[in-house]
Amino acid sequence: MRWQGQQLGVDDTSALPGMERMDGLVRSVTPPEFAGMTFHEVLCKSALNRVPGASAMPFDWTVNPYRGCSHACSYCLSPDTLILRADGRQVPLSEIGVGDEIIGTEQRARYRHYVRTTVLARWTTRKRLHRVTLADGTEIEASGDHRFLTERGWKYVTDSPVAGERRPHLTTSNRLQGYGTGARSSVPPTSSDWRQGYLTGMVRGDAMILHKTYDDGKRIRSIHRFRLALADREALDLAKNLLEQIGISTMVRPFSVPAHRRPMTAIHTAKKQDVARLEEYVAIPSLRSQEWSAGFLGGIFDAEGSCSNGIVRISNANEELLSLTEEALAAFRFDAVREPVRPNGVSSIRLRGGLSSRRRFFDVARPAITRKLDVSGAAVKTSTDLRVVKIEDIGHDIDMVDITTGTGDFIANGVVSHNCFARKTHEYLDLDYGADFDSQIVVKVNVADVLRTELRRGSWAREPVMLGTNTDPYQRAEGRYRLMPDIVGALTDNGTPFSILTKGTLLRRDLPLLSEAAQHVKVTLAMSIAVFDETLQHSIEPGTPSAEARLETVRAATAAGFRVTVFLMPIMPHLTDSVAALDDALARIREAGAARVVYGALHLRPGAKQWFFEWLEREHPHLVSSYRGLYPGVSVTAPKAYRTWLGKRMRPLLRMHRLDGWDEDDHPRGRPQPGLAARTPPANSLGPVRRTGPAASGRPRVAPASEPTLF
Predict the structure, then answer these.
(1) One-character DSSP codes across 635-686
(2) In this predicted model, what pLDDT tens digit does every residue of 109-140 receive, in sequence order?
(3) S-S: 699 plus which of 275, 513, 597, 672, CB 3.0-4.6 Å?
């Protein structure tokens, strides 16, 4: 990690606020209660961060004890989990690497569709093992924090392990989306029986074996030839390799075809003993094992099979081959039907059962031609029984793997699986944007001591300090490090007023301390709640406390004597700006006892903008064009016309619910914003409290909507 720029006495002007003056790394720890997260404990050289003069923020000073956010979850799967690659094959997750092409999904009109995507990041961790069993026999081993797509949206394997927090999780009432793997019945394509079955299906299905005698009047010549000509080199190369394993060598040459057809290549031999050996080898055995049957299905499919519009067919005019195909399919309990004979004498056997049956066929038969295996473009329709029948805590930890993909999901054991998200604000420290914002947390362990030193300087004018503008001071990591009580104590002892903006319910732990501090300095509190719809919240704010849990914290702060403000922002066009959504949000805010609401439209700063559009294209593709019109190019804010429209919608709703409310646009930098809960200290408070803005207002300046974003 890029710690070389954190030397004492050296300023790095390109560093993120607070990071350019860091002494260095003390240690990195991965505590068991935060599986999948690493805390990098550092010694900072400065705690107070001055907001640049050009910033639009209506405050001058911040304190950020953490960099990165542990609100988000780390999702992990067993390394043995089968991942669907773009070539149609399933391979263990342990074999997947960055840059690999695999299959994800994207929303198109009514349905999700399977699409190709790329692995952007890969990481490992050690977490407690859970097993999810589905009605079709599919088993998935994952951490409790992993999420899967159900008929009711994304759901975690288990409920939140954090006391007081709830999250949507799997129950036996849910059904996963995808095709499943059933009770795995794939046959390794390495056994001698599978090899013999494959060559039997391939050679009998599409090869030529010729025995002919020529008499030219001078002598009688016997010719013995074998030839296999295919357009797909994958199957041809496999057949050549399998023949070599039984001692039959073949030559390769181009095969002449009409110009309008695909080019073909042939393997061949004219050695009498090799042709005789091959004929003997591909004779139909009287006892046919499952391995032989699986290989036969792979060979006959590569030779005579097709997969058009998602329907698997195997066609031939030979009754013996058709009967063998039906027998082999029945051996694996496939549902297949023979179609009527066509005028040319060819009949087809069609596989029924949708994508789940098709995928199981490929796993059993292991055909070589990947173009026939491609699922790209197919709709995600669940035809098999993927009901959750059991969720087990196995009781021990294992090493797990997770990946980040371009679509934000992937196919794991035949079901749609979520991956981890993060933001680009971590890249300065050489922490990747794919996962590290949520899993690599920089902790300024000495921040309170440094803050006390800075507050004692004669130049410090006790200006209001804002906490929670960059990363949440009451994120989950605070439960381990308890940095906030000492920060609150330092500010209180110095007589410096401060404001706290958080999404974290851990604020309730410090309410007694904050109430005591409010006897001496002005303390202002606010809770950020952007999304009240549970499914949408867990889609865009994974790992954060639910809206209801945050409202309970508002109630507790109100009971402690604070007039609490809720930051209802960002309001997202077409997602959370309907009258019904806003009315429900304000009703719940009022019922929780909040006194004020600060609202504002979505801001999309660099880094967050890219992440948001990736999320939008995946979850709500029908809104992408509208958002590109609202936020064109490098535009950060919604158009003035939209913000004006939003204000006209909000104001009557605020009056109806008897809530004070302010639009972020009403309070530009340099003017006080009356948006935070406060308790004013009594006259005998410690030290003077310097206010900014008009003296009569008595209100500290707080962050506008662009700060308490979801990112």
Answers:
(1) --B--HHHHHHHHHHHHHHHHHTT-EEEEGGGS-TTS----SEEEPPPTT-S
(2) 888 999 999 887 777 777 889 999 999 889 99
(3) 672
